[in-house]
Amino acid sequence: MLIRTYEKTHDANLTAEIFGINRSTVYARVKEYRETGSTELHTSQRGRKRKITTEDDERIKKLINDNNDITIAEINETLKLNVSDEAIRQHVVNLGFRYKKKSVHAAERDRARCSSKEK
After folding, report:
1. Domain locations in the chain?
2. First vs last C-alpha separation in the chain
3. What distance lies between CA 44 and its chain's CA centroid?
4. pLDDT tens digits for 30-52?
5. CA–CA separation, 3 vs 113, rounded Å?
6. Cβ atoms within 10 Å of 75's Cβ, excluding its own
């Protein structure tokens, strides 16, 4: 449709206005059409590419299922993924797992005199 409009009018500004796109996009699509004959959009090439692959997702699932008390940092360390802990945390949540922070408590809490009250 875009190519036909441009071919009829030979006006990139008008075509860009009609389709709500940039004039340079009109020129790029027309050039690609003339070179390849294709009017297909390259939607798979848009956006930032994932650093954590689907294979990594499967490895993360297996690791969590084998040891459900594992931390995000331990997952990153074990699988040697070149991503931040936050990226792994987001993937863990997207995989359907819930995460919890390990609570750190004072060592005194484990002493016998603190564990029960004397009467």
Report:
1. 2-45, 54-94
2. 87
3. 14
4. 998 888 887 777 666 677 888 88
5. 82
6. 21
